[in-house]
Amino acid sequence: MALLGGLLIVYKSRMKHFAPALFLGLCSLCGFGLLRAQDAYKPEIRVEKLLKTSLDSAGHPIVYPKEGEPEVTGALVTIPVGGETGWHIHTIPCVAYVIEGEVTVQWEDGSTRTIKAGEAFAEVVNLKHNGFNHGKVPAKLIMFAIGTTGTPIAVKQ
Questions:
Q1: What residue spans define the domains of the chain?
Q2: Could you tell me the fold of the domain covering 2-156?
Q3: DSSP calls for 110-153
């Protein structure tokens, strides 16, 4: 966490206009395989690639915001058993990792995908969807979004 905090300080002070570079750097440190992170650490440190993609979970290209003051947001999202997120969109790229339970995402065309604990995915951008927890335990996701100051990570539809 201290490393992430340090990166965010550097980001705010020196890299204001390089949001995509910061996002790629954070991904590599998280083990996304963009750089050979394993080679940077001592041998007892394990780095496991969770996700490496240039497409969101609906297969659309990931596009970074081009205007505004860059901002990175991290959030813990909890969906209770039987709960749902409600229909919403993300207007900025988001990456999520399910740490507990499972979430079934339904897109506006009716198609679905179930993401289980231990799986990472790139959220869809500007595509209406709803997340359901049909499991037996609360679903918990860690989500990171890269956008611009004042832009919410989700917008109700």
A1: 2-156
A2: Jelly Rolls (2.60.120)
A3: S-EEEEETT-EEEPPSS--EEEE--SSS-EEEEEEEEEETT--S
Write out pLDDT tens, residues 16-46.
444 444 444 444 444 444 456 667 888 888 8
Contact 155, 89 (CB under 8 A): yes
- Residue type, position 80, single letter: P
pLDDT tens for each residue of 103-150:
999 999 999 999 999 999 999 999 999 999 999 999 999 999 999 999
- Measured in degrees and rounded to the nearest 5, phi and psi for residue 78 equal -120, 125
3-class SS of residue 74 = strand
Of the chain, the percentage scoring pLDDT greater than 70 comes to: 76
pLDDT at 7: 40
